[in-house]
Amino acid sequence: MLLSYNPLSPPRMMLSTTSPKKQIPSSSGRRFMIRDAQAAAAKVKDLKNVHCVVTGSFSRSVEASPSKQGYHWNSNAETYYLVGEAMGKAVLELIGTSKPAKKKRAPLYNFRNADGPKSFKARLKNYDAATGKVTVIKSNGIATSFNIDFLHPDDQKFVKK
User: Reduced to 3 states, what is the DSSP secondary structure of residue 127?
Assistant: First the structure.
């Protein structure tokens, strides 16, 4: 896969191997050559922007997979996830980022109901002034929406600012 994230910089390339020899039918010798060529490209010293992600160990058994086709990882979602995660980490390394930037989260706010005796902690996610709809993310991570009139007047001011 060729990855170019900045047209002003040299192209960046990442190559991935497919799977170990034992899981490819013997009639697929051509696949071995492709896999070996991909791995060899990552070892060329002049190619500093090439990574080879060996993904064969991510393959799950036929018994643990929804299809028994013997290729395309037997349609196993866990395998696809692991391959994607490894490729994503390699891309971050390739572009010089060790991990994704953390998104700054709004602080937890103690929202009270209109009368004041009940409250809950949540992060304000969105307020739609046209509909009066407030969306918050509760401390347990669950999003919920409600009309702004549900909130205490002081909390309504917080939401509207």
Answer: strand
Alpha helix locations (H) across 74-131?
Answer: 77-94
Nearest in space to 15 (alpha carbons), one of 44, 46, 39, 48: 39
Q: Which tokens hold the place of 62?
A: 């036929």
* Each residue's pLDDT expressed in tens, for the chain with a length of 161 residues: 444 445 556 555 555 444 444 444 444 567 677 777 777 877 887 776 777 777 777 878 888 888 877 777 788 888 888 888 888 887 777 777 666 666 677 789 999 999 878 999 999 999 999 999 999 998 878 889 999 999 999 999 999 98
What are the tokens at 67?
A: 């299809």
